[in-house]
Write a structure and sequence with these properties.
The chain is α/β, with parallel strands linked by helices. The protein has 2 domains: 128 residues, Rossmann fold; 143 residues, Dihydrodipicolinate Reductase, domain 2 (2-Layer Sandwich), CATH 3.30.360. It is built from 8 helices and 14 strands.
Length: 287
Amino acid sequence: MKELRVGLIGYGFIGRVHTLAYQSIPFYYDPPPCKIRLVGVSSGHEESCRKAVAQAGYEFWTTDWRELVERDDIDIIDCCAPNFLHKDIVIQALQSGKHVYCEKPLAMNLAEARQILEVGKRSRTKAQVVFMYRFIPAMMRAKQLVEEGFLGRPFSFRAAYLHSGYIDASRPLTWRLDKAKGGGGALFDIGSHVLDLIRVLLGDFKSVFATTETFIKQRPLPDAPGKMGKVEVDDLSLLMLKMKNGALGTLEASRVATGTNDELRLEVHGDQGALRFNLMDPNWLET
């Protein structure tokens, strides 16, 4: 059986989720398509590194992600680091002949994304952004129905991704709320998933009108008790979109939607049929 050797960069919440997914592969596929070996882990925090080794059995740890990229006994670099590190990690990993699995967003801006793309075009390895919702069976069925003409001519869509985790104004100003490190707020963090699903189902975008708002404009600085820092990323983004196929739609991305948990909603209407999906009930696709 082929062995794939993983180097994970970033062992925060998402890094732990990815680790659990690797460990779960044999429980979902019998026989498994490959053997996963968790070789190395890197984090800027030594405590997180030691925890990864103890919890997940990574063979070694380092606080310098470049050590993972340079090693010959690693095939895949899984990038779960903060957004501002993505470009350098992905480019160096591709140039070192590694396969890359990178958390969204791919980069901080379009210019960085284009740099990554140019390197990727010259690479013989595989690279993918973590847009996992397109692989939910219900969404794969939705794509199949669209390709079979179930919708007919697409007219409109309504999409939203709603979280409530940033309603508490006392939540500290971490890197996700720092534009210099995160690149953006709700639209980058969760809206990117919905944009991906719309593109998967309906093709490319033609035009966009958007407005954003930061409702909680200051938050406590985690390393400076009693002091506040300015929030420069969006709590809420509202978009009106026109697709190249003529369909029109709206998208809402919010991290201050009171009462929601992980609410990704998507409706698409055509002249022959309609689709509806909600991540809170992910095993169902309404038609």
